[in-house]
Fold Di-trans,poly-cis-decaprenylcistransferase.
Amino acid sequence: ETVRRIVEAAPRLGIETLTLYAFSSDNWRRPSAEVAALMALLRRFVRAETGRLAQAGARVTMLGRRDRLPAGLAAEIAAAEQATAQGTKLHLRVALDYSARDAILDAARRAAALPQLTREVFSRLLSGGDHAAEPAPDVDLLIRTGGEQRLSDFLLWECAYAELLFVPCLWPDFSAGDLADAVAWYAARERRFGGVGAAAAAAPAPAVTPVPSAA
């Protein structure tokens, strides 16, 4: 329910890209019963929401490894990505079995074979594709729920200039109003990107990345 209401609210708030941290690579260390329950929940979400997301004009992509997912789940995710590929109202990215450090290492290995490397090219490699792939977007606003104040190995490269907002409410209680408040807070920030005063950039509609407290 939380994901549904946030996904519905995001386009109304001018958000074009929304990234959700569903399951980190380190979360495999949790009790097997908890992991199994989380994977079952993800499977139910994919099955129940793909049609609704496609109808709403959302495009879904997954970040992270797929080779360790339960049997059939990777195929269902790929089908959801294909079914929503034409969506233009919102890019919903779901980080599943994801580690930013692993993503950076993998991109660095592939970058070693390139004759010339730039930040943009490296961002494309971080997307999981080759140097011609769609670049990984910079995060404008990272929202951490549950009162925790850490990044939990999430989008470390992309968060270079992200505004960080830590909120006390738990992810299941995070509402469309909370998201609107976060966007208003972000809009009031002076984003300088290393500059000062007149050099500060006006804050555009944010690429938002909520990190649930369980990450």
